Amino acid sequence: MRTLTILQPDDWHVHLRDGAYLAETTQDISRYFGRAIIMPNLVPPVLTSADAASYRDRIISEVPSNRSFDPLMTLYLTDQTSKKTITEAAKSSIIHACKLYPAGATTHSDAGVNTIEGLYPIFEEMQKTGLRLAIHGEVTDSKVDIFDREKIFIEQYLEPIIRQFPSLKIIFEHITTAEAVQFVQATDSRMGATITVHHLLYNRNDMLAGGIKPALYCLPVLKRDQHQQALIQAATSGDPSFFLGTDSAPHPASAKENACGCAAGCYTGHAAIELYAEVFASNNALQALENFASCYGADFYGLAHNTKTIKLIETEWTCPARKRFGETDLVPVRAGENIHWQVVNEPGEST
Ligand code: DOR
Ligand code: ZN
User: 3-class SS at 269?
Assistant: First the structure.
């Protein structure tokens, strides 16, 4: 039985939602992660520093008293975002990035950005103040095949942005393609990328062959095997540009298993670090997990590493088929199947 002790990890991309949903998502994510970048796509979205401060308070009120968890807040960019909003956010100690959703790209992105070039004055201010830009990198043109939307986004938008703003710090969120891996590798250290565990564990066959699996439907959508392999190679390579971001995004089972369409988002908050350990172990790269999960993201965001540790052991346990989610329930990734790693201590506790 293999074991692994690593510095307490952080999640650099998560959706906790709000209201009745916040208790479960916060409890799950604060079990082992010390910090998390909290995505702002609430309805209505988190638009200002004041919105972020009150959302942060609501999150903190759901953290069990024996845990320490720091929610790192983000703002949602729209066509109307003002320079003043950015200047204020850059001064705030609780806001760590602004998130760019192309309008219509994904769940709760209707209020997102229609004309990315229109935001250039905002990027200018972010570059000047050091505020990071987190990007959902997919074009929304309905004529572009859904499997190509990330690749085209790089050509149409990311390349011009990095040319125009040479010192803007950018996080290319939840990358899913070999092209994105190559683009991040070819760009200097001002660009980082998060990689989800579901994109490391699965490819589009897992979602589509033998019956569609709603629990695995997310955006950007799972790609073919060769892209999955490129992501595994990037995550386990020791390149500090790539770090952990679960993109755990809960939806009630009724919104995913629905005749009118399946909501996009995979829930991994219940077992994220355990599932990442599975990927790294099965690719003979357990030694690379700590940097990916606990160091490179903090380095990119200019934050100190956590000092507590967690210990993982290789052992089988069965993931529940459903989890409670507010007044309803959700189907997590791996529902009813075995997970092969487990955390055996609260962060910092000796075992
Ligand atoms: O699949 C996704 N779900 N992708 C996103 O970008 C958003 C997320 C959500 O909020 O449900
Ligand atoms: Zn997300």
Answer: coil
